[in-house]
Every structure is written in structure tokens, then in C-alpha cells.
Amino acid sequence: MDIMPASWSRDNGRVTNATPRVLVSVSSLAASLAAGEPVHLLDVRWSLAVPDGRDAYRAGHLPGAVYVSLDTELSRHGAPEEGRHPLPDVSALQDAARRWGLRSGERVVVYDDGPGLAAARAWWLLRWAGVEDVVLLDGGLAAWQVAGGALEAGDAVVGPGDVTLTGGHLPTADDDDAAAWPARGVLLDARAGERYRGETEPVDPRAGHVPGAVSAPTIENLAADGRFLPRDQLAARFAALGVTGGSPVAVYCGSGVTAAHEIAALALVGVPAALYPGSWSAWSNQPDRPAATGPTP
Fold first, then answer.
1. Mean pLDDT for the stretch of residues 135-146
2. Is there a single domain that holds both residue 38 and residue 114?
3. How far from the centroid of its chain's Cα atoms is residue 264's Cα?
4. Are 31 and 132 found together in one domain?
5. Which residue in 56, 192, 253, 266 is the catalytic one?
6. Quick check: is 253 catalytic?
7. Cα torsion angle, 252, 253, 255, 258, sign
8. What is the mean predicted confidence (pLDDT) over 52-65?
């Protein structure tokens, strides 16, 4: 599927609302809400340390935002060799999306408490399922609060949605694809550098990386304020990582979450990329899959 941005809007050199399918700025979102436009807000607060963000959501969220559970709604439970966050069944995802109030043809804005590392999973998954107008709030809740945006507490009440979802609208890679990918293109590892190098592994059975993968920590796509870097800086970063000349690109992380954020960054510079949903959590649970260590592919 084509995820190349169609147009760009810039604010002091920063991408603020590059294609409606990637980012929306706080100011643009506030204007849409003030104008009464139909916008569905999804709060996807999650981290390895605190996987259930519901308490934080209830303490304060964007007005009208619905809480979305990454662990139970944006993934399913599977065998260890499928990874920690296998993609959900489309029917289950559609049921969840209708609970969130999503309606066909209406815009969806996803955010988390900061840079979008968790919210990007919802952005990617909904696009994979056929929702075209879904965007990340650049800077997330933190940027909203810095701009003086109002918050509300408790659980938002929304009416049932009618959205119809189908899968396969964005490319994915499986274990065998990931093994072969470096020979045909660029495989990016979006985890922290120390996990890529095999110096530490806090979650998964083995340390290291997929042989041939290039270290590309997702966090390096962000400025200090938690928003995406300007487009020219992102383009230069990916070019330095070998993303040039139209070579096919795939991305993985620990369990297919922060890799989606890297795919969003790539989309901002016009580079489509496949997601390896199982990621290192799937790979490392298969003893026959080799693990490389050190700073090089």
C-alpha cells in the first residue's frame, strides 16, 4: 500500500501536519475540536513498566478521548514464538473500534502521554485494517498540556460506532521474511542501542539482534520536546542508515509497538516500510533463529 505523504505543512521548519494520515499538530486538533468537526480521540497510554494506562487516563485525558488497551485490544495473546503482542484478529479489532465509537469516514486521532511510542501502534494497526484518516497527535498529551489544552477526568461515554475493518492494507513481514530481508533491502531494529548490541535484555529470552539488521532506535526520530524531528533531519538520518535508492525497508522492535512509530517517521519522508509484528520477542523465542551481538549488523 502507498503510504507516501501527499503534501506538507511546516511550522518553523518542523513537520506539523504532513499528510492527514501521519501527524496532526496540537493547534490543528484544537481548531478542529473547537469547530465541532467529527474527531474521535483514542488515548493509548502504555509502557513496559506500566502496561495498563487506565488509571492515568482517568486522572486526565483530552476531552472526549476513549481509553484503548494496547495489551488487550491492539494485540492478542498467542504462543511465545508469535511474540508478546501479536496482531489482533480483525473481527476482534472491529468490535473494539466500534466500542470506541469509530465511524466510517470520520477522522481518528491517537495519542499517548508523550512522544507517541505506544499510540503509533494504534495508528499503524488502524491503517493496516483499512482506516485511512487516522493520525498521531504530534507530541501527545504532553504537547497538549504545554499548549494549555483542557483535560477531563473519568471515562468518556461515546455512542457505538459502525466502522468496518479489513486487514492487510499495510505490508508486514514474518520470521522468514526478517531473516532474508537484509539480503534484499534494509531491516531496521528500532529498539534501544544497548538491546540491539546485546548488552542487556530486560524482557525477552535472548539478547542481540536479527543478523543483518541495522540499529535505528526509535527515540532518535524525536526532538527534545517529544515531537517528530523536521522532515529534512529525518531524511538525513534514514539515509545514513542505508535507507536510500528505493530499497525495500522493514522494521522491528521488541514486540511490534515502537517499530510502528519508526514506520510513521519513515512515512513522513516518503518511505514505505513493512512491520515485522513478532519482532525480537518472536525471534528470540525460537532457538533455531541466530542472534547477532555487537554494534554492527
1. 97
2. yes
3. 7
4. yes
5. 253
6. yes
7. negative
8. 96
